[in-house]
Request: fold
Amino acid sequence: MALPLSCFLFFLALQSHTSVAQTHSNITLGSFLKANNDNTSWTSPSGDFAFGFQQIEDKGFLLAVWFDKIPEKTIVWSANQGNLVQRGSIIQLTKDGQFLFNDPNGQEIWSATFVGILSYAAMLDTGNFVLASQDSVNLWETFDNPTDTILPTQTLSLSTQLVARFSETNYSNGRFLFAMQGDGNLVLDTTSFRGEKETYWSTQTVGIGFQVVFNQSGYIFLTARNNTILNYVSNASAPSDSYQLAILEHDGVFRQYIYPKPSGSDASRWPAAWSTISLIPENICLSTPSDSGRGICGLNSYCSLGSDQRPTCQCPPGYTIIDPHDELSGCRQTFISPSCDGPSQDADQFDLREMLNIGWPVNNYIQYFPVTEDWCRGVCLRDCLCTVAVLRDERCFLKRLPLSNGRLDDSVRGKALIKIPKDNSTLPGVKSKNNDDSALIITGAVLLGRSAFLNIVLLLATFLAYFCFRNRRSEVLQPHRVTLGMNLQSFSYKELEQATRGFEEEIGHGAFGTVYKGELPNEKGNFVAVKMLEKFVKEGEKEFETEVLAMGHTNHKNLVQLLGFCNEGQHRLLVYELMSNRSLANFLFGNPWLNWCTRVQIAFGVSRGLCYLHEECSTQIIHCDIKPRNILLDDLFNAKISDFGLAKLLSADQTRTTTGVRGTKGYVAPEWFKNMPITAKVDVYSYGILLLELLFCRKSFEAESNDENMVILAEWAYDCYKDKRLDLLLQNDEAAMHDMKRLERFVMVAIWCIQEDPSLRPPMRKVTQMLEGAVEVPAPPDPSSYISSI
Ligand SMILES: *[C@@H]1O[C@H](CO)[C@@H](O)[C@H](O)[C@H]1NC(C)=O
Ligand SMILES: *[C@@H]1O[C@H](CO)[C@@H](O)[C@H](O)[C@H]1NC(C)=O
Ligand SMILES: *[C@@H]1O[C@H](CO)[C@@H](O)[C@H](O)[C@H]1NC(C)=O
Ligand SMILES: *[C@@H]1O[C@H](CO)[C@@H](O)[C@H](O)[C@H]1NC(C)=O
Ligand SMILES: *[C@@H]1O[C@H](CO)[C@@H](O)[C@H](O)[C@H]1NC(C)=O
Ligand SMILES: *[C@@H]1O[C@H](CO)[C@@H](O)[C@H](O)[C@H]1NC(C)=O
Ligand SMILES: *[C@@H]1O[C@H](CO)[C@@H](O)[C@H](O)[C@H]1NC(C)=O
Ligand SMILES: CC(=O)N[C@H]1CO[C@H](CO)[C@@H](O)[C@@H]1O
Reply:
C-alpha cells in the first residue's frame, strides 16, 4: 500500500497529533511515529514498556517493543523480521483503520495482517502491543507474533516459534529455533541456511503437548490440552518485583532473565543488569544436533563453555574463522591437506599438535584397538584423509574433514592429535592474519605449483565422496549399518574367534583364504562374514594396513562393505557385511537360472561397482579377479563386488609389469601372459567375459561331453554376433529372446571389453554408459584381430 509521496507529505502536514513520546492508554486512528533522532515511542500506562523506533548503533532503526524504564532499553519484539529501516520511516494507524509501515518514500515495508475493523492500538503493561476493535477485541498482538523473546503471561500455541537473532546486535533471523511444533513436541532446533533442521533438545511430547505458558511467578512450562503440566522448561521462581523475560539467544541457548524493578525492594542495587535464572540446554556444547550437521559452532570449530555458562567458538591450531564478523561461521584450514594421490610422500611434512579434553564425536571413519599412542600417531600421519586422531583408553579414532560438533569440555576424555604442517611459518593464516585475499592467492599458487589437475580432481572427489556419503546417510535408517559402515573397527583375534564360534561355519574359500560366518557380540542378528587371509602372512604389517585403509575408504552400493579387521601377530582377518544370497556362481549355471531382468540388473551393478573402484576412489583399485564367485548377491539380488583391494594396490601411474598372474583361468586378460603393463583394463576384460556368462548363463569355456568339443564362449559369441544368430546361444530364455535389441547391445559391449589389445577396450565408465544406452555402441572388431596382426 504505497501512497504517492506528495500525497503522503500533505497527509502528514494535516496531522494534529504529535509524535513525541507520551504515556498513552489508547492510541487512536491517525497517530504515527517517525524514525528520527527524537525518542519517539508509545509507552504503556505504567511506563514499563514502549513501542516505537530504536536506533541500532548508527546502522538504522528497528521498529520494536522494549523495556523502557531501564537504561538498556532491552528489546523484546521487533517488526520486519529484525531488519533495520532508514531514518524517516513511518509507522501509522491510518484513519481508515490500517496499520502501515512505510519507508521515507512511502513504499510499504511491513504490515500487520488481521481480520476485523481496527479501532485503536495499545501498548499494554504486560509488554503486549495490541491492535483492537471498537469492542476491545484484540485483532492482532505482538504476543501472538513473537520474535525471539517471551514475557510473563505470554503463551506459545501450536505451530509458533521463537527465532534467535543472528548476533547480539543483528536482529535478523539467526540459526536457532525454539518451536512449539504443530505435532505437540517442543523443540530446540538449528536452522542451517540450507534449510535442514536438527533438533538438539526436545520434550518428546508428540501428540500431547499443547502450549507453552510463561506465568507471572516466573515458571515456564508445557501443558496438555487439559492444562496438565507436562514439562517444566524452567521452575526458577522469580521475585515479584523484578522484570522478567525468556529469550532464545543467538548462541542457541534459551535463557530466562530477571532485572530488579527501579521501584522494588532491590532498588538500592539499581541500575542493575539482567541476570540469568535458568537456561536450556545446560551445556549446549555437549548437545549434538546430528552427526552430519554443522553443530553449534559451525564446521571444523570447537565449542567450550565459559564460567558464565556461555559458549565460545574457537578454531583448532591450523584453522581460522571463516567470517570474522560471525563467530558461528565455522573454521577453515589454513594449509593444504596432504595429497591423497599415490604414496603419501607428504607424510613427513606434517606433525600432530596435542590438545586435551577436546573431541569431535561423530567424525570417526576408522578406529583401532588396542594401540599405543605412537602407533596411532603413525597411522594418522600416513593416512592422507586423517585430519585429527583421538586417543582414548588404547583406542585410536581417526577423523576426517569436515569436523562437526567439536567441543572442549572436562567430560571429554582422551587426547586429540591435530594434523598441521611442520613448518607453520608457511601457514597463510599465520603469516598474514588480516589478509584473507593473500591467503587465497597463496593457496591457489601452491595448488598450481603441484599437479593442478590432480589436485582439482582430488578436491572434486573429496566433495563427491562427502556428498554421496551424506545422501546415503539420510536415506538409510539402519543405525548399526550406518555407524559400522563408516566406522571401520579393529577386532582382536579372540573377539573374532568368539564371533565365529571358533571358526565353525565355513561359507566360502577363495584365493586369499577361507570365509566364515560370524555374529558380532554386541548386537544379536548382526551377522558378518569373516575372511581369514592366508597369503598375507609374509607381507609387511604396513602394507596390510594401507590396503585395509584404502578398502575402508570405499563406500558404494555395489561393493561389499568392509566393517573391520584384525591385525594381530600372524593373524590377518577381514570382517565384511554378510551377503545372504552368496555368490553369483551359485545361481548362474545352476537350474533354475536367475531371470533375465535380474541378470541385466547384476550386469549394471557390477559395471558401476568397477567404475567406482577404477575412477572414484582416492587411490585407484584394480580388482584383478573379477568372476562370478567374487560377485555376491544380497536379499534383493543386488550385485556386490567382493575381494577388491586385496590384490596389491596399483596406483594410477604404476604401470609396471608384474610377473605373477593374479586372475582366474578363463577370466584373465591376455596381457598377464605377455610381459605387458597391468592396468585397470584387465578388469574390463574379465568383466566382458562375465557379461557374456550373465547374458547366456553359460560358462566361459565348457568341456562338453569330450574335450574335442570344448567351447570357448567368447569365440562362439563373436561368431553368433557376426551371423546375427544370438538366439542360438540362448537356452530357452523367453524373456531375453524378447529383448533382442538389448541383448545385442550388451553382446557388442562385451566384445569391446574382451579385445586382445587393452587400448581398444573402453574404460569402465564408457562401458556403463554403453550398457545404459547413454552412448552409441559402435560395431566391435574381432577380439583377436590384434593378436593375428602381430
Ligand atoms: C480504549 O478504547 C476503547 C474503545 O474505544 C474503550 O472501550 C476503552 O475504554 C479505552 N481504554 C482506555 C484505557 O482509554
Ligand atoms: C532520548 O532519551 C535519552 C534517555 O531518555 C536522552 O538522554 C536523550 O537526550 C533523548 N534524545 C532526544 C533527542 O530526545
Ligand atoms: C545481519 O545478518 C544478516 C545475515 O548474515 C545480514 O544479511 C545482514 O546484513 C546483517 N545486518 C546487519 C545490520 O549487520
Ligand atoms: C505459576 O506456575 C507455578 C507452577 O505450576 C505455580 O506454582 C504458580 O502458582 C503459578 N503462578 C501463577 C501466578 O499462576
Ligand atoms: C490430561 O492430558 C494428559 C495427556 O493427554 C493425560 O495424560 C492426563 O491424564 C490428562 N489429565 C486429566 C486430568 O484429564
Ligand atoms: C522442576 O521441578 C520439578 C519438581 O520439583 C523437577 O522434577 C524438575 O526437574 C524441575 N525442572 C527444571 C527445569 O528445573
Ligand atoms: C609454530 O611452531 C612453533 C614450534 O613448533 C610453535 O612454538 C609456535 O607456537 C607455532 N606457531 C603457531 C602460530 O602455531
Ligand atoms: C540361496 C538363497 O539363500 N536364496 C535366498 C535368496 O534371497 C531370497 C530373498 O530373501 C530368498 O527367498 C532365497 O531363499
DSSP finds 16 helices and 46 strands in the chain. The first strand starts at residue 22 and ends at 23.
